[in-house]
Specification:
It comes from Sclerotinia nivalis. The protein has about 350 residues and is an alpha+beta fold. Helices cover about 35% and strands about 10% of the residues. It is built from eleven helices and eleven strands. The strands form five sheets. Strands 1-2-3 form a three-stranded mixed β-sheet. It has a two-stranded antiparallel ribbon with strand order 4-5. A two-stranded antiparallel sheet has the order 6-7. Helix 1 crosses helix 2, helix 1 packs parallel to helix 9 and helix 2 packs across helix 3. The longest helix is centred in the first third of the chain and has 13 residues. It is globular, with a radius of gyration of 31 Å. It starts with a strand and ends with a helix.
Length: about 350
C-alpha cells in the first residue's frame, strides 16, 4: 500500500469517496469539464467501461476529488507510505489547476534509508513502526480532553458561553470544550461555528455551516473543528467508550499472611492479555446497528449498474443459503397392532 486517505466522518462517507476515486469517469462529484479520465468502451449493459488506472491518473483524480465542494472541507488526511508515490504527488499537485487548501495535511510515513536493514534471508525490513501499523485508530490521544470534559460537565455546572455569555445547562444543548489543557472555555456549538467561520474570511461565508479550524476566543490557540466534535460526540453518545478509556489500570498486590513479603508471581503475558481484554473498546457499541446493512445496500446499488465487478458483499448475498449441519430424516412412528389372541385365551392360559 502506497497511499491512503483517512479522517472520514463515517463509513458511508468513506465508501462514497472510494467509489468516486475508483470511478472518476462517471462520478457526479467531478464536473464533466474537470474530468481527466474518460471511458472509451462500453460494457454489455451499455454503461461506460472503467478505464485503466495508472499511478499518475490515480493521484490526479485524488487531487481533483479533494478540491471539489463535496469533499474539500472534510477533515481528511492524505498519508503516503512510499517515497516514490509522494514525489509523484508533489509533481502532480504543482501542475494542478485547482490548488488544495493549505490546511489539508499531507503526512509522510515511510522509513528512511538508515531505517532499512537486511535480514538473514537477504530481505529488507524496517526498524520501527511505519505504514498501516503506525496509524492511531483509537482515542488514546484524547484522554486529557475527555477527562476535562467529564469534570466540567456535571449537573452542578455553572458555566456561561464564552461568545454569547448565556448560561449553559447540563444535558441541554450541544456544548464544545477547548482541548487546551490550560483552558476551560465552553461555548455553544453554533456560536463557535459562526465565530470560526468569520475568522476564515471565506467569500462563500453565507453558504458554509461547518468550519475547518479556528482560534479559541480565550486562549487564542488554534483548534481543529474535528477535534471539538470528536470530544462532543463521545461525551454525548459514547459514554461506555469514555468509561473504558478512562478506567484506571489495576496494580498488582502482594499476598497476605506468611507470603506477605513475596509478590504474586504471574506471567507477564497473561497479565497484559487480561488488561487488554478489560480495556478493549468495542467500536460496535458506538456505531449504528444496521451499518453493515447500509454499506451493503450502498455497494450493491452502485456495483450492479456502474461497476465492472460485483462486490464481495453482493456476490455473497446472491448465493443460495444452504442449511448447515446433518440432514435428519423424518422419524416414522412405530405402531404396535393388537394381538390376535383373544382375551379369554390370554386369561385362561
Amino acid at each position: 500500500m502506497a497511499c491512503i486517505v483517512t479522517g472520514f466522518p463515517s463509513s458511508i462517507a468513506a465508501l462514497q469517496f472510494e467509489w468516486a476515486w475508483q470511478n472518476p469517469h462517471i462520478t457526479h462529484h467531478i464536473p464533466p469539464s474537470s474530468r481527466i479520465s474518460h471511458a472509451t468502451q462500453k460494457k454489455r449493459s451499455g454503461h461506460p467501461k472503467r478505464p485503466r488506472h495508472s499511478i499518475q491518473s490515480l493521484l490526479s483524480n485524488l487531487h481533483i476529488l479533494l478540491s471539489v465542494p463535496s469533499f474539500s472541507r472534510w477533515p481528511l488526511e492524505v498519508r503516503f507510505f512510499s517515497p516514490d508515490v509522494h514525489k509523484a504527488w508533489i509533481k502532480s499537485s504543482k501542475g494542478a489547476i485547482e490548488p488544495l487548501r493549505n490546511s489539508l495535511p499531507n503526512i509522510t510515513n515511510f522509513p528512511s534509508a538508515e531505517q532499512i536493514v537486511t535480514d538473514s534471508k537477504g530481505g529488507e525490513t524496517t526498524s520501527g513502526h511505519h505504514g498501516i501499523e503506525a496509524l492511531k485508530v483509537a482515542y488514546e490521544d484524547m484522554k486529557p480532553h475527555l477527562e476535562k470534559g467529564k469534570k466540567l460537565f456535571n449537573p452542578d455546572m455553572k458555566e456561561a458561553c464564552e461568545i454569547c455569555n448565556q448560561d449553559l445547562q447540563h444535558n441541554s444543548g450541544l456544548h464544545t470544550l477547548c482541548p487546551n489543557t490550560d483552558c476551560g472555555t465552553i461555548t455553544h456549538m453554533t456560536c463557535l461555528s459562526r465565530y470560526f467561520l468569520q475568522g476564515e474570511k471565506n467569500k462563500q461565508l453565507d453558504e458554509l455551516l461547518v468550519p475547518i479550524k479556528g482560534v479559541c476566543p480565550s486562549c487564542k490557540m488554534e483548534v481543529r473543528w474535528n477535534d471539538l466534535v470528536k470530544e462532543l460526540s463521545l461525551r454525548v453518545r459514547g459514554q461506555q467508550v469514555v468509561e473504558k478509556l478512562l478506567k484506571p489500570k489495576r496494580v498488582k498486590r502482594a499476598a497476605k499472611g506468611a507470603a506477605a513479603s513475596q509478590a504474586i508471581v504471574e506471567s507477564d503475558d497473561d497479565w497484559e492479555k487480561e488488561e487488554e481484554e478489560e480495556d478493549y473498546i468495542n467500536m460496535g457499541e458506538f456505531e449504528p446497528q444496521n451499518l453493515e446493512e447500509e454499506e451493503n445496500e450502498f455497494k450493491n446499488y452502485f456495483d450492479s449498474d456502474d461497476s465492472d465487478t460485483m462486490s464481495v458483499a453482493s456476490i455473497a448475498s446472491t448465493k443460495p443459503q444452504m442449511r448447515s449441519g446433518p440432514v435428519t430424516q423424518s422419524r416414522l412412528i412405530t405402531v404396535i397392532e393388537d394381538s390376535d389372541i383373544d382375551e379369554d385365551e390370554e386369561l385362561n392360559g
